[in-house]
Amino acid sequence: MGIFHRLSDLLKSNVNDLIDKAEDPEKMVKQIIVDMQKELNNSTQALGKAVASERTAKKQYDQAAAKSADWEAKAKAALSAGDEELAKKALANKVKADKDTAQYKEMYETISQQTESIRTQVEVLKSKLEEAKSRQAMLIARSQMADTQKSLAQSTGGFDASSASAKFDRMEEKVIQKEAQAQAFADIAADEGSSDAEAFEKLENASKVDSELERLKAEMGL
């Protein structure tokens, strides 16, 4: 009956307590399912043997009861024929058959009770196994979520937000400086371009003035 002691211990165990003690809850949950499945297989085999024993005991009991009834019928037949001695012999065999019948009946009833107990344990284990399977995915998902949250907490815990903000401020100052320099160069280039244009414009105007002067002199014969 060692298998049923282990089965009883397994049924009494608390899955959540086992998970709390496990280094890797995901592996532990899967192992619990494997262990429970093994126990179910073993207990199912034991139930099969118990059922076979119960049937054998029932058969022996029925045969003994039938033999008792047969000897009683023979005793009645002997009495009807007026042979009392033969009837006594038949009844002597009936008494022995009755004793066997009582013994086989007691054995059958004992085995039947044990078989029913084993059957109940098997059904309980099946129920526990189905419950464990339905909770397996949920527990694994919760474990993975907890690992993710822990990892994120550790990452953000070592992150200096104020330092990062100060770095961004310095980078922004540098960008502002670069933008100012670019604008200054653009302004200088624009000023230089304007001076050249004014010079060319003065030259062009002077040339026009000289041309007009020559034209007037020619008209006036000077």
What does it look like?
The protein is mainly α and 222 residues long. The protein folds into 2 domains: 2-159; 166-222. The chain is 94% helix and 0% strand. It contains 5 helices and no strands. It has helices at 2-12, 15-21, 25-80, 84-157, 161-220. The longest helix is centred in the middle third of the chain and has 74 residues, at 84-157. The model has no long low-confidence stretch (mean pLDDT 79).
Fill in the keyword field for this structure.
222 residues, mainly alpha, 2 domains, 94% helix
Short description:
It is built from five helices and no strands. The longest helix is centred in the middle third of the chain and has 74 residues.
Number of helices: 5
Structural class: mainly alpha
Question: Mind summarizing the main beta sheet?
Answer: none
Global outline: rod-shaped
The average pLDDT value, as a whole number, equals 79
Strand elements, count: 0
User: How many structural domains does the protein architecture include?
Assistant: 2
Low-confidence stretches: none
Distance from N terminus to C terminus (CA atoms, Å) equals: 146 Å
Give the DSSP E fraction (strand runs of 2 or more residues). Answer: under 5%
